[in-house]
Specification:
mainly beta; UDP N-Acetylglucosamine Acyltransferase, domain 1; eleven-stranded mixed sheet; five-stranded mixed sheet
Length: 224
């Protein structure tokens, strides 16, 4: 059975924003709280380790920021994180430690846990990526339905009304998303899962599985 609660998807000690998840059961409930959480966290950050570049943009002194990157606030960029050439951070972004945000990648209203990699031509909007999640080149989250209706999460015969018009994907810890895959609005991928390249993913994918297509999802042996 697919479990889509926060405690089954994420290692909360691997994000500076762990407290945003308190008293919340389903991860999409966090998306509307990211902006206010950034400002609250930012004002508490150690000034010996972080500097405030622009209004409500806090960057770790150990982070590497390409001169061509565009960073709009509010945003937090963690320790030893690399923001590469022409990355575009549109705001409301909590980017953890040891993260790679790559060439021409665009982020908006997101939480990236520690050691996430979105290194090549990715779009991640209204989404949460767990510890060590990796998105292959060209893979994206689609965060708005074509008919602009509110997004409903569907899992094991149940429907969860999110009341959100914009909601991309929730990706658990240690997930691998193959190159040029599309994660449709309201997608949830369980921890440890691999998604094949060129996949179109919709709905909820169980943890520790291999997603080839909608009709072919197989169990994956745990990697040690």
């Amino acid at each position: 059975m697919m479990n889509i609660t926060i405690d089954n998807l994420f290692t909360l000690d691997k994000t500076i924003a762990k407290y945003i998840f308190e008293d919340i059961k389903y991860p999409w409930e966090v998306l509307s709280k990211i902006k206010e959480e950034i400002i609250a966290i930012g004002n508490r950050l150690d000034k010996d380790e972080y500097y405030c570049e622009n209004e409500n943009v806090w960057i770790a002194k150990s982070a590497k920021i390409a001169p061509s990157a565009c960073i709009n606030g509010p945003a937090i960029i963690g320790e030893n994180t690399e923001i590469r050439h022409c990355a575009y951070i549109r705001g409301n972004a909590i980017i953890g430690n040891n993260v790679v945000v790559g060439n021409s990648t665009e982020l908006k209203n997101v939480i990236l846990f520690d050691e996430v990699q979105v290194p090549h031509y990715n779009y991640v909007g209204d989404s949460i990526l767990g510890y060590k999640a990796h998105m292959g080149a060209g893979s994206i989250t689609s965060n708005v339905k074509s008919d602009k209706s509110l997004i409903v999460v569907k899992s094991v015969g149940q429907e969860y009304k999110t009341e959100l018009k914009k909601f991309g994907a929730i990706i658990g810890d240690c997930v691998e998303i193959g190159c040029n895959s599309v994660l449709n609005p309201g997608t949830i991928v369980g921890s440890g899962t691999i998604v094949y390249p060129l996949a179109m993913v919709r709905g909820c994918v169980p943890k520790n599985s291999i997603y080839k297509n909608r009709e072919e999802i197989i169990e994956k042996y745990k990697w040690i």
